[in-house]
Amino acid sequence: xxxxxxxxxxxxxxxxxxxxxxxxxxxxxxxxxxxxxxxxxxxxxxxxxxxxxxxxxxxxxxxxxxxxxxxxxxxxxxxxxxxxxxxxxxxxxxxxxxxxxxxxxxxxxxxxxxxxxxxxxxxxxxxxxxxxxxxxxxxxxxxxxxxxxxxxxxxxxxxxxxxxxxxxxxxxxxxxxxxxxxxxxxxxxxxxxxxxxxxxxxxxxxxxxxxxxxxxxxxxxxxxxxxxxxxxxxxxxxxxxxxxxxxxxxxxxxxxxxxxxxxxxxxxxxxxxxxxxxxxxxxxxxxxxxxxxxxxxxxxxxxxxxxxxxxxxxxxxxxxxxxxxxxxxxxxxxxxxxxxxxxxxxxxxxxxxxxxxxxxxxxxxxxxxxxxxxxxxx
Length: 378
Description:
13 helices; single chain; globular; disordered N terminus
């Protein structure tokens, strides 16, 4: 019996893979070059993120790293993107420019949360009008399509939620950048597999820019922060990737668990935000109040440093994505979402258990240390 023919990559696919790799490397290189220039300007003008009771850093740090990411991302897109892709890109670029501008103003002068939220919702509405939208519940509770008048608030709410979730997860060195890099690579790969070349290019270019940023932000000795200018850009692009993937995968690629798979990529910031909102409401405090109970705060309390905390959170994210891609594929959508959230909570429980064990070990160590000293005094 003859062996089945081996599929070989076509010239077109090789050219596209080369373009994606080139975009990733170029964006990375530009970011590595540009961020020191941004840091130099920030130092010269004393544009710092100052320490306070909610922040872990002990010295003023430039918080304009997101500007370097934005510039390298846009330069890569301008240099390498095909002309036919700009029909999609113009709205992405418009939203990115406006959000980075507002983020810079917020980092330097301050912007009211209401104004920032209104801008995000306005941009989401713009994208809805351009055809990028959620058009139903994608099989959740057996509901596919929704009346047109419900699709608009659903899309705007989803984009606003995701943008703010990434803005709030930017609390320790390397975390937002790592989640952004991982998420962009996953969405970019999914887009490529299913032939959405323009969106795959965008995702890989942004992954390269975020990877370059991590060179200056990963670890306790970070030389720059992302700032609101970067976290809003990150949230904006991840929201658009999620909406584009979920709607296209469900309708055009016949993937009934598209919502579960898409949500698993952005689950850490989104689930963490929803968890905090619920906890604050149960405590009868404003869901928008600030505290130190985000997932990264919980990990740091176990005695882990910033890189260790990032790796543990990324591990949870990886487990969620693997579960969505394998086990959840043939399950009802509601069950897949419930299991993802329960796995997230299980990850938090494991973190809390680790914290308790660390505290017990610390008490035991203190007891053993003090014991001999007391014997010597006697």
